[in-house]
Amino acid sequence: MNIPLKKHHADWIAEQVRVGRYASETEAIEDALAAMIADDEDVLRLREKLRRSEEDIAAGRVVPADDAFFDRLHKRVEAIAAEKRK
């Protein structure tokens, strides 16, 4: 597969190979594609979490995030931290 690249992309890839970050242009492109795929998968996971959160809100499965909530949360975190220090 031959894919023409814009000059600044080709220059960046060549520089990465030149400085030893990648052994070849192919390796640099494969790494870039792997990063894009991972990012896409992260976005899909976040969208699914958002969808479930919206369903929970619509169904009333929520906890008010008032000062009392954060006070309880802070106490729980402190208790866990204290336990780990033992």
From TrEMBL:
Record keyword Ion transport present: no
Gene3D superfamilies, A to Z: Antitoxin ParD1-like (6.10.10.120)
Pfam families referenced in this protein's UniProt entry, alphabetically: ParD_antitoxin
GO biological-process terms attached to the record: regulation of DNA-templated transcription
Keywords tagged on the record: Toxin-antitoxin system
Protein name: Type II toxin-antitoxin system ParD family antitoxin
Source organism per UniProt: Aquibium oceanicum
